[in-house]
């Protein structure tokens, strides 16, 4: 039970971090599970990791985005 509570807390913190960074930097941020840990990445960072071979061959940013736990979109600019 405590494990579930901690996982829920970590997930909420990761979502909060992703939303905050998406608003601040105007980029799309993803919360994904990598090796049992929740990681918050911008889509640009994700494509860089894919190019460097961090993920299996054939994996695309669209595949990872489709399976992401949370996708934080930036607010549209008011210009």
From TrEMBL:
UniProt name for this protein = Uncharacterized protein
Native organism: Tannerella sp. oral taxon BU063 isolate Cell 1/3
